[in-house]
Amino acid sequence: MRGTIFCCVSLLGVALFAPRNVMAWDDNGHMIVAIIADHYLLPPAREKIRVMLSQDADTLTAHYIVSEATWADKYLESDKATTHERYDRTYAWHFANIQTTRPNIPEACFGQPPLPSGTPASQGPAKDCIVDKISQFAAELANPATSAKERLVALKFLLNLVGDIHEPLRVADENSGHGMLLQVSSAETTPGDLFTFWDRVLVDRLGMDYHDVANTLVARISDADALQWSSSAPQLWALEAHQIGLNQVYGMLGDYDNQGNSKLQDSDIDRGIQIVALQLSRAGVRLAHLLNEALVPASSQASAQKNVRTGDPAAGRRFALAACNVCHVVSPQQVIAPSSGLDVTSAPDFEAIAKTRGMSDVALREFLFGPHPTMPNMHLSQTQADNIIAYILSLQKSR
């Protein structure tokens, strides 16, 4: 058997074809992500995006957000049969070679070298990965000093790459060409490569009308989900998708027959579809969050999001002193954390967490509800999390 971890990648009644161009999500997937993102855009961001795209003179795609979400793939492929310049320069930007047995983002991202001084992100070196390109393009989009031409290109790359980074096989490599070298089949499909199955077949199984699919997924996203997923941390997105790739994609492959095909179980179909739906939903919410942050001043965001959930700092302090002080220094008046027999040498105190650069409600929420290998699972309720977050953020003003 190949791997353990938990199941996924399933089959459906669509034949797999020979390997296509290596792009994460097919056009339908990217357009679904864009529609979900548009739902969560703040009105000022949506209008700025509309104006920017209306001024696009490029002919590879139509000039609205849903179509432009496919532009970076069209750009990549546009000279593959001729000069290969665009293809060679931007191919690596669409993935990260994070190894399944030793996840290491700097290693997967060519050492994460900074952009050469004065070099636009769109002209950056070919040896760069999706994690860093998202960060670079987001910084350009947010910077008013960036030229209008470069900001437009940055926007178009972001519309595509934020979707890409949520496709597990884009960021989980098992020395298999991101699944392109692995053949899979089932009772309902002809043999084909794992990447095409994940990239296209499962997305199409959600439905062939991408508008209907996107609207269905939006209706399933709760306010708590949207708040929890909202972050501008491509490193975390990549590691999350990598874990899905390891556990849910490679981990479900079974024995190979004498033709080299791994026979997938039909019972995996629904689970695979659910995972694709989840990743597309996360990508849409996070793309909107990133674009809102880049295009809308913080003061305007605060006004637009004034109904965001808030907690009670005093209640959060009481709960933290009772539940968190086993490992953490919770209060500035607390000199050391009580001895618990646990290794707490790396457990930061709450004030240090609060004063970490870039710390915010969203970052804390993602931390509290995300996996913590060195912490017990607290199983916090939403109210408890709200209160703890409010308390930690109140420490930003202490002393």
Describe this protein's structure.
It is a single chain. The chain has 2 domains: 305 residues, P1 Nuclease (Orthogonal Bundle); 85 residues, Cytochrome c-like domain (Cytochrome Bc1 Complex, Chain D, domain 2), CATH 1.10.760. Helices cover 50% and strands 3% of the residues. It has a 3-stranded mixed sheet with strand order 2-1-3. A hairpin with a 2-residue loop joins strand 1 and strand 2. The longest helix is centred in the C-terminal third of the chain and has 27 residues. It is globular and about 65 Å long.
Highest CATH level, the class of the largest domain: Mainly Alpha
Tell me, rounded to a whole number, the average pLDDT: 82
Q: How does the helix and strand content classify structurally?
A: mainly alpha
Main pleated-sheet profile: 3 strands, mixed
Strand arrangement, major sheet: 2-1-3
Write the layout of secondary structure elements.
Layout: H1 27-40, H2 43-54, H3 65-68, H4 71-77, H5 85-90, H6 105-108, H7 130-142, H8 148-164, H9 168-171, E1 183-186, E2 189-193, H10 194-205, H11 210-220, H12 223-229, H13 234-249, E3 261-263, H14 269-295, H15 298-304, H16 313-323, H17 350-354, H18 361-369, H19 382-394
Parallel strand pairs: 1-3
Antiparallel strand pairs: 1-2
Helix pairs in contact: 1-8, 1-11, 1-14, 2-14, 7-8, 7-14, 8-14, 10-14, 16-19, 18-19
